[in-house]
Each structure stands twice: as structure tokens, then as C-alpha cells.
Amino acid sequence: MLNNLKPLPADKILMLSGLFRADERSTKIDLGVGVYKDASGHTPIMRAVKKAEKQLWETEDTKTYTSLPGDAGFHKAMADVVLADSVDRARLACCATPGGTGAIHNVLETIKMANPDTTVWVSNPTWGNHLSILKHLGIKFEAYDYFDDDTCAIDFTGMIASLQNVQAGDTVLLHGCCHNPTGANLNQTQWNQVADLLLEKGATPFIDIAYQGFGDGLDNDAYGTRLLASKFDEMMIAASCSKNFGIYRERTGIVLAISADADAAKITQGTLSYMNRQNFSFPPDHGARLVTMVLSDPALRADWEAELEEVRSGMLVLRQLLADALRSETGSDRFGFIAEHRGMFSRLGLTKDQVLELRDTHAIYMVDDSRINIAGLNRKNVPIIAKAVASVIS
Fold first, then answer.
1. Which of 6, 70, 248, 333 is most buried (CB neighbours < 10 A)?
2. In this model, does residue 9 exceed pLDDT 90?
């Protein structure tokens, strides 16, 4: 039987990480994998999370299961962070999942069960795993215009024109903030226009919000998600705690599903629990427990928000440093967009050949579409990166 299996394409980012590890040059720079790193290249445990872990170690007295959808305290804490008061909680169904990826998978399976004929619309470009999961589940999908490769800005006119083709019953996947891979985000006026168009079309929004707090702050980053939640009868949300709590390996995510009324929400809740049961039974609890403790304790929450703001503002500084250095090296404002974008990523607008030259000649690693991880920058390597980029585009 196993002889019938065919080789599957390797994940490009994970493959890039392998190439980086194998590179013996001491000058190598990793701008590939999307993990937050401090100036020393280390991914730290956040202060509040470390304190919560100590408390949990001292007080936890059982490792038994919680429930199929996870702990209710986690549901409430995350609904408060993501949605605030934008929707009646009686209309909300929640389900903890193994990471944001698990939440996306759960949402897409639920969508397929609810409407097998739906088409899921995704931005061009989008996070590669969106497409991989859609293909794996056999769900139809189409791309809508989003990013202008020439200007490295949102092609909003093209986006609206593309979304005119959405049909009633279709699903539109939107990045809640800090668009991956481009870093180019909708402004509030654009969010309102998209919301009105999707309402007109009878589409269901699906928000993937993986970087809340990394862009313009916790509340500002949730603007689009909360706006749509206040307007739509039905909506799906996949949220991740990996980045803004720094608990990547704990695999902590959540599905937040909005239904038309409380009765429909009960059925949705049962469906989400059923999906968990089929895929992995009970969701992991350790990371979810830490998140709940941090968000529920005023002192821990204040410390978490302060450190999250340090991370966010630090990335903005790095963006400006790189934009300034590239302006100095190239004598143009071609890369000024880097300072305007938000989150962990930006696409530099380089060709695949230029990206390969950066890797081979300068030991600078980035995804082949020229997506860079802003958190991979520091004051020492920014001048090196700017000089190398200037050399490959000259």
C-alpha cells in the first residue's frame, strides 16, 4: 500500500530553514522563517508567560482532559481580545485548536460541511498554507487581487474588482492584520468598503488573525475583524496565540464562529466540537491555560501588553532603519514602503534570481518571493543587507 504514495512538495520555508542551517558561513543572515527573534536572534519567553508558567506549576493538580472544545475560560479571554463587544456572545461558538493552523483547518472543514459548493476566495498572494489546506481538503478556491508587485502596495482597485465576482454563499478569507507575506494592510476606510461589498454579495467572511498586537496595537489590529463581526449574521475567525504570546511550540489557537442567533450558535458549537473529536479529540491545554492566566490577571496582563508593545515598536524601528539604509544605498525611495507596512513581514519586490544571488553570494536567506522576516533584522545586519540588496538590483 505505502508503495503507492507519491512524493509531495516540500514546504518552501521549512526547506529554506534547512539550507540555512547547513550553510557554514559565519556571516549568514536568516530572514526566512516567520518566528519573532530579539536583537540577539533568540526567541524569548515573554515575562508574563514565564510568571504564569511558574504559577501553573505550583497550582495545577491534574492533567485530565478539559472538554472537546477546550476550556471555557480560554474561549472568553480570547473572545474579549479579538472581538471585544462587537457581537452578542450568545451568537458565538468557540473551539480551542492546536495552533492557528489547526483553527484554519477546523474552519475550512466546517465550511465544507456547511456548504460543499462554496468557493473560498483568498488574497493574491496569501500565506502558502492557506492554499495547501484548501487543496488537501478538496475545497474550490479563487484568488482576488490584493498586492501590486510594482508599487509594493495594496491594489485596492483590483481587490474590489475581483471581489465583484464573489457569489452568494462563497467565503472570503481576509487577513485580520499584518498581512502575510506582504505586510500591506487595509486601512479603516477600505475595511468598511470591503464589508459593504461582501454584505451586498451575500458572502461569508473568514478572518485569519495571527499577529494581533504586532501591527498598530491590539485594538487597532482588530478593527477589521470587529467591524465585520458587528455587521454579518455569520462569520468565521481563526486566531493564533503563537506570535503575540510567543508560545509557538505550545500550539495554541482558537476558532471563533458567529452564527445568526443563539440557537444556530449551539449547532455550530456542536459541529466545532465534532471536528475536534474527529481530528485529535481534546485540544492541548497548556498554552491555552497560560494565555487565560495572563489575560485574566491584571498584573500579568499589564506586563504582557507592555512587552508586546516593546516588540511591536521594536519592529517599527527596524522597518525604518532598513528603509533608510536602502534609500542611502540605492539613492531612491523604492523601498520606502517597508517603513509603512506592518507586522513581521514585507516583500521586497525582488526577482527569484536576485533572491538566489543574495543567498549564494551574500549568505542572506529569504523566501523566494522576497518575503523577509522583519524580526530577523538588527542594527548590525541592516547595513549589510541594504548593501547586498543594492548590489543585486544594480
1. 70
2. no
The per-residue pLDDT for range 337-383, each reduced to its tens digit, is 999 999 999 999 999 999 999 999 999 999 999 999 999 999 999 99
> Domain with 21 in it: what CATH number?
3.90.1150.10
Q: Which of 30, 71, 155, 208 is catalytic?
A: 208
3 within domain boundaries: no
For residue range 66-97, list pLDDT tens digits in order: 999 999 999 999 999 999 999 999 999 999 99
* Active-site option among 127, 238, 257, 303: 127
- Enter the DSSP assignment of 347: E
If you compute the radius of gyration of the chain from its CA atoms, what whole number of angstroms results? 21
Shared domain for 255 and 310, answered yes or no, is no
Is 127 noted as a catalytic residue in this protein?
yes
- Within 8 A by CB and 6+ apart from 179, the residues are 123, 146, 185, 343, 345
Domain limits for position 195? 49-296
Catalytic residue flag (residue 6): no
pLDDT score, position 179: 97
Respond yes or no: is residue 243 known to be catalytic.
yes
Do residues 232 and 100 both lie within one domain? yes
**C-alpha to C-alpha distance for 11 and 136, rounded to whole angstroms:** 14
- Measured distance CA(98)–CA(287) in Å, rounded: 10
Catalytic, out of 37, 51, 112, 243: 243
